[in-house]
Amino acid sequence: MMPEHPTIDELLARWEEARQDGRELSAKEVAVASPQAVPELQSRIRQLKAMDWLDEEGDGLPAIHDSQLGESTEERMLGGSVPTTLAGRYELESLVAAGGFGQVWRAKDKALERLVAVKVTAVDCYAEARRVAQLKHHGIVSVHDVGNEDGLCYIVFDLVEGTTLAEQVEREPLTWQQSAQIIAAVADYVHHAHEKGFIHRDIKPANVLLDRNGKPVLADFGIAVTECELKSEAMTSVGTLAYMSPEQLILGSIIDARTDVYSLGVVLYELLTGRLPFADHTVSGLREKILTGGPMSPRLLNPAVPESLEIICMKCLSTDAADRYASAKEFSDELKKLLVSVA
Amino acid sequence: MQDVGNQTAMLEQWLNRLKTGDGEAFDQARDAVIKHASQRLEQLARRMLKNYPRLRRWEQTGDVLQNAVIRLHRSLEAIRPDSVEQFYGLAATQIRRELLDLTRHHFGPQGEAAKHQTDYPGNRDGGLVASKADTSGEPGSLVEWTEFHETVQRLPDDERKVFELHWYEGLEQKEVAAILGVTERTIKNRWRNAKLLLRQMLADE
Asked: Using alpha carbons only, what angle is made at residue A248 by residues A284 and A225, rounded to the nearest 5 degrees?
């Protein structure tokens, strides 16, 4: 029973209760015995309705973990809106990959009559194209053209026919010798980029392409930044979490060549053991593990791995950058030395 | 609210452990509460970014959020709570601080996000999004979200506490009642007052 002269609070409580039962009452219906309260009640009801969103459950958004753990479905970003021909020249044939920064298509360059890879993204990619264009190396995918069309930005690259290291590992595990050879080669390319002032920051098996002869080629310098830029901006870390170094997880930490050495170590660990050094079903759990360090010995997971290779791999995975190889070259040299010693 | 199905049961266990001084079991319950707070932070941050689909997709944004979650985790680990109320209260405050930090330093007017176009309907020309239609009082832009979190801070103590536990922590009203030691009806009244006050304070700004 409502009191004879209910307060506004009591009337609002009554309105809320009815609403919870699925009955949307007007102020007049609620304050039927106290018509003088109607105008104020109306105003409060309006205010409360405007705050209904606070009572909504969830956020109605897809799980953020997916993209952070590298399982994103970024095709949605571009949907079906990608034109079939860009600049009247690049005929998109088939989708090769979709990642954090857009889609990569296998395409035909009609002017030069050759196959190319075209990366299409919804964000301005001129800066990325300019960066990659400065890196001329046989082990780094080179850029040929950049442009805008229909609000999309595209970059034209060499098409590397073959597979990625990620696909290769999924299909068939590599021997430790093959793993060491591939990583030594990639470390050399990375060192070349470091010498030019670039840090890749997103080294992972999906970014290492293997051509038809099995030669690795490094791709996706999309987030590579020059050391100069790192110093001038408070850059936050980017990249796929599982391959990220501890310093990439801490704001304000120094990111340098040793950050890429760490990621190369993660890839080597995965090639040797078939597992990532750290795994967790939650993003926060994975971060904590990376920051804490101390992965399981690779030799426990694969007894075929020589002790000296384990030592090299674990050195790359040191939580403190000062304990890692100072350069990718130093790391590559160690791997090559080991390969020669067992040959 | 999501992910609170087990909160009541856990809360009861936790209260008992505090009383009986069962250290290890208490630590486990505390870890679970920290984990819950981290999930809640992620959920609320995603909600704030829902009008910024492009921004949300940037891995960089994800990383900024990851860093916020790490900091939340760390700060809560360092707390030795005397009571469940104190702990949940601090957790909620930390969540709010991280959300404010996300908007102010990374997505605010001087932040990276402000320079970028969003996909918000009717605002495809760049810049920050305009306010959403007034029929929904939900902040539309990150500037508005900053105002919102700051306004929550200025609510009277009773309303603020309920708001923090119910909205930032995502606890059900009956759980909030148990923590604060008042009736569920009182919580309902304070929650309603909090919403009315927020609406008025935000409209005045």
From this structure: 140
